[in-house]
């Protein structure tokens, strides 16, 4: 090998990576756009799922060049293909690392054409995760007196752009759209955050527990995602409940934990936050160990302790551009509306959570 040429190539790759990710983690963004069609045998009709978001819907896996083929929107496309006996095109317009304003401005608004086609039937989006992650990182770095304003700003920005996104989609999605869904936030690093801060509270003079400080803000973000959905004609896929609660009744209250954690239409913010952060807090579990029964668990979070796990391979997405492709569905029918692996991986669970709202016909 020509070592000079090899060294130049490595420097080029390093420079490109810096362009993609920025000089700091908080500023890093990477467009990861994918169009994948679930090509069902013997069908001619083709409908579209248009999905907008950040690294979650992108199917981010740590790579600058590829992403999960079956991230949540494409998992939903597979469910739709079976339900409607049709080909389903999953169009994911995603920007890993993007805060809510960025997703709104540069994906939902600037790339509105993807939801304006006449074959669009489902429009879904997710945002705000990076607002929370950046506020968390900044807070962890604090010393001296704790300043909580960063988390409050993240919450305010989340509410602003979630509402704006729903209003914009309501105006711009094609009239043939049958379903609009927002996916809310799970809590990545739930166990890792169970530590004390390096800053001190101004009133008590003591450090604060990071998890206890962050959970109410995330819970308020999730409340407003689901509440705005109720107000504005969207459905809310409650990923927090699906990821953070066991699929059995662990506390003997007569309810399956994951079901008990879900947003309920008519909840007030105070009632919902109290239920999650106090009444049922003891049932919350880190999604690295998602309990699907009292004796069985799956890992919903990748080794970065942030992004959902997945199966089904990868597609090109990132520095070298997005990709377009098609393939036969992994499953052609679903017993009880659930794939055999619906609860085995984070993206499979999230895709199923969106799919429960699918209309019976296109």
Describe this structure in words.
- The protein has 362 residues and is an alpha/beta fold.
- The chain contains eleven helices and twelve strands.
- The protein has helices spanning 3-21, 55-58, 72-84, 100-109, 129-140, 149-172, 210-232, 239-244, 257-260, 269-279, 346-355, and strands at residues 30-31, 34-38, 46-53, 66-68, 87-96, 120-125, 179-183, 235-237, 290-291, 297-298, 314-316, 323-327.
- The strands form three sheets. Strands 1, 2, 3, 5, 6, 7, 8 and 12 form an eight-stranded mixed beta sheet that branches.
- Strand 7, helix 7 and strand 8 (235-237) form a beta-alpha-beta unit.
- The longest helix has 24 residues, at 149-172.
- The chain is globular and about 65 Å long.
- It starts with a helix and ends in a 7-residue tail after the last helix.
- The model is unreliable at 1-27 (pLDDT under 50).
List the helices and strands and how they pair.
Layout: H1 3-21, E1 30-31, E2 34-38, E3 46-53, H2 55-58, E4 66-68, H3 72-84, E5 87-96, H4 100-109, E6 120-125, H5 129-140, H6 149-172, E7 179-183, H7 210-232, E8 235-237, H8 239-244, H9 257-260, H10 269-279, E9 290-291, E10 297-298, E11 314-316, E12 323-327, H11 346-355
Parallel strand pairs: 2-12, 3-5, 3-6, 6-7, 7-8
Antiparallel strand pairs: 1-5, 2-5, 4-11, 9-10
Helix pairs in contact: 3-11, 4-6, 5-6, 6-7, 7-10
């Amino acid at each position: 090998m020509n070592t000079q040429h090899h060294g130049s190539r490595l420097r080029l790759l390093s420079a490109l990576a810096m362009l993609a990710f920025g000089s700091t983690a908080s500023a890093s963004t990477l467009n990861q756009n994918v169009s994948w069609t679930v090509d069902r045998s013997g069908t001619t009709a083709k409908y579209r799922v248009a999905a907008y978001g950040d690294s979650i819907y992108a199917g981010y896996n740590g790579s600058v060049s590829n992403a999960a083929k079956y991230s949540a929107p494409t998992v939903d496309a597979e469910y739709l293909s079976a339900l409607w006996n049709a080909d389903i095109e999953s169009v994911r317009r995603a920007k890993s690392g993007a805060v809510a304003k960025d997703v709104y401005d540069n994906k939902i608004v600037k790339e509105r054409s993807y939801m304006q086609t006449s074959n669009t039937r489902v429009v879904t989006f997710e945002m705000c995760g990076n607002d929370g992650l950046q506020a968390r990182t900044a807070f962890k770095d604090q010393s001296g007196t704790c300043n909580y304003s960063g988390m409050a700003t993240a919450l305010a920005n989340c509410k602003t752009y979630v509402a704006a996104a729903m209003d914009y989609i309501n105006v711009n999605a094609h009239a043939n759209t049958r379903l609009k869904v927002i996916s809310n936030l799970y809590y990545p690093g739930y166990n890792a955050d169970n530590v004390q801060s390096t800053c001190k509270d101004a009133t008590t003079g003591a450090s604060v527990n990071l998890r206890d400080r962050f959970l109410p803000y995330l819970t308020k973000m999730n409340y407003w995602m689901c509440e705005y959905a109720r107000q504005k004609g969207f459905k809310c896929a409650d990923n927090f409940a699906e990821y953070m609660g066991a699929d059995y009744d662990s506390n003997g209250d007569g309810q399956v934990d994951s079901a008990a954690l879900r947003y309920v239409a008519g909840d007030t913010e105070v009632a919902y936050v109290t239920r999650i952060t106090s009444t049922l807090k003891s049932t919350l579990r880190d999604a690295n160990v998602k309990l699907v029964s009292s004796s069985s668990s799956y890992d919903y979070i990748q080794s970065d302790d942030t992004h959902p796990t997945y199966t089904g391979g990868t597609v090109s997405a990132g520095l070298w551009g997005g990709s377009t492709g098609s393939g036969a569905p992994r499953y052609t029918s679903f017993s009880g509306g659930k794939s055999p692996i619906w609860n085995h991986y984070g993206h499979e669970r999230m895709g199923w959570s969106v799919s429960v709202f699918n209309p019976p016909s296109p």
